[in-house]
Design goal:
mainly alpha; 0% strand; transmembrane helix; DUF2157 domain-containing protein; transmembrane; membrane
């Protein structure tokens, strides 16, 4: 299914590991350059700004090809061509992505333009054919984006797949009528939790390293979807906008106590689990979820003026940060405030010298204490030999 040579994908993983080791001080820059020369790799851009530049160039090339096809098509039969033009444009995107993959372009920018352009045209083409039937558009986009990820290991395509699959779930529940609309938050919560544990299990047993980033992205998306599925603000506003529900003063949405509790309990559980498993991504998500939970209550209930609330919140965050630093600053393992081991850790920068010293039995040279006798002079043959005592 993957179009790329798997040996090149393995080489890319080794090169990324070499970059991490060089940044951590385990290997020298010359060793990293030697590793890159010895391992054949892709035409790839790790600099995000350069990659964006190549994406714009690829988008211009893609639009130019589609423009030529449009000029040729509209000169022959305007009505029939307008119905199939987006399908032709999607085919151009698939063909361009396949050609660039054969030329060993991977995460380069040019391939991004053709892959995303193909997915966009698939969605527009299905929308034109089905007259904007949302669930069918979402299904076809989900299938096309998943194919693009499996074929080209394109992370943005996997993100499009996650969004499209979520849209399929939501629109599918709307098709069930009032019952589906009522159980939509709970269905989204259960399905996202199920896929979270499913992707987590695959990650723990993963052998092909080139699938790691994609599974990690899907796993993170499930965490975000799980929290947002039953967040009080999201549920209430979506029920008003999409379902036409009306919440009068003094009333509330059904199961409001559950959604209130969910809004505050889940971020705390995320935080506890992140500290327990040392999961950095979950830790950042928990911080964002806590902030959004505070905003959720603040959106409906203004207990304090905004300036007072911000001041008190800042003081609380400062106190938490201060005491956390004091507690963790001396820890060498586990939760610690010291620099990341793989990112300029001062304890690791001298690892080579420590290993050499331990291997050869070398010890640091001890500094001799200063002598209590203060020698001076030395005009003739020794200390203090100038005829004075």
């Amino acid at each position: 299914m993957i179009v790329y040579d798997k040996n090149l994908l393995d080489n890319l993983t080794l090169v990324e590991e070499a970059n991490s080791l060089e940044a951590a001080g385990f290997i020298s820059k010359e060793q990293k350059v030697f590793i890159k020369k010895e391992l054949p790799a892709f035409k790839r851009q790790s600099n995000i700004l350069v990659r964006i530049g190549f994406f714009l160039l690829g988008a211009f090339l893609y639009l130019s090809i589609c423009g030529v096809i449009a000029l040729m098509g509209f000169t022959t039969n305007e009505h029939s061509f307008s119905e199939i033009c987006c399908y032709l444009f999607a085919i151009v995107g698939f063909a361009g992505a396949e050609f660039l993959a054969q030329q060993k372009y991977y995460e380069h920018g040019l391939d991004d333009a053709f892959i995303l352009g193909a997915l966009l045209n698939v969605g527009v083409a299905i929308a034109i054919t089905t007259e904007g039937y949302e669930i069918q558009v979402a299904i076809f986009v989900a299938v096309a984006s998943f194919f693009m990820y499996r074929r080209y290991l394109h992370l943005l395509s996997l993100l499009v797949f996650c969004l499209a699959a979520s849209a399929v779930l939501f629109y599918g529940m709307f098709e069930l009528g009032s019952i589906g609309e009522m159980i939509l938050p709970f269905a989204a919560m259960l399905i996202s939790a199920g896929f979270y544990f499913f992707t987590k299990r695959i990650l723990n047993n993963l052998k092909e390293s080139y699938y790691c980033k994609g599974l990690l992205l899907a796993n993170t998306f499930c965490l975000v979807l799980f929290y947002l599925s039953c967040n009080y603000l999201v549920v209430r506003e979506l029920s008003i906008d999409f379902l036409g529900s009306e919440v009068r003063p003094g009333e509330d949405i059904p199961f409001s106590f559950f959604f209130y509790a969910f809004t505050f309990i889940v971020p705390v559980l995320y935080l506890i689990q992140a500290l327990k498993t040392k999961d950095r991504i979950m830790l950042w998500i928990s911080f964002l979820a806590i902030g959004f939970s505070i905003y959720t209550i603040r959106y409906y209930y203004s207990v304090l003026p905004i300036e007072v609330a911000l001041t008190l919140g800042g003081l609380v965050l400062f106190a938490l940060a201060y005491f956390s630093i004091r507690k963790l600053k001396d820890n060498e393992a586990g939760l610690t405030f010291k620099p990341d081991r793989i990112n300029n850790s001062y304890a690791i920068l001298n690892a080579e010298a420590l290993i050499v010293a331990s291997a050869f039995g070398m010890k640091p040279e001890a500094k001799a204490p200063d002598s209590p006798m203060n020698y001076g002079g030395g005009g003739f043959s020794g200390g203090g030999s100038e005829g004075t005592f």
